[in-house]
């Protein structure tokens, strides 16, 4: 019984050592468009962002006091039945070589 348990532990350790590199973080292939650009007259983040309003009205607020990784965030405020999407401009994606 002890031998089986030891073999299982050793086998598990070997698998983790061999496959451990597979779970590493990969580089981001898409550049984050961000919200740091100038705000448009419509209140949207600059640099190509636009708002698709499928149903109902949505208010967009660029907040420079609250941010995660950049210097600004965006807050969407709408009624419960509203359907909107904030869409970024097109961006290039690089391929790893």
Write a concise keyword list for the protein shown above.
4 strands; 24% strand; 97 residues; alpha+beta; two-stranded antiparallel ribbon; 19% helix
Brief digest:
The chain has 97 residues and is an alpha+beta fold.
Q: Overview of this structure, please?
A:
This protein is α+β, with helices and mostly antiparallel strands. It has a domain at 27-87. Helix content is 19%, strand content 24%. It is built from 1 helix and 4 strands; from the N terminus they run H-E-E-E-E. The protein has one helix spanning 2-19; strands at residues 50-55, 58-63, 73-78, 83-87. The strands form 2 sheets. The protein has a two-stranded antiparallel sheet. Strands 2-3 form a two-stranded antiparallel sheet. The longest helix has 18 residues, at 2-19. The mean pLDDT is 81.
Q: How would the blueprint of this fold be written?
A:
Elements: H1 2-19, E1 50-55, E2 58-63, E3 73-78, E4 83-87
Antiparallel strand pairs: 1-4, 2-3
| Alpha-beta classification | alpha+beta
Mean pLDDT: 81
Helicity, as a percent range: 10-25%
Order of strands, main sheet, comes to 1-4
What percentage of amino acids are in beta strands?
Answer: 15-25%
**SSE pattern, N- to C-terminal:** HEEEE
- Enumerate the spans where pLDDT stays under 50 for 5 or more consecutive residues: none
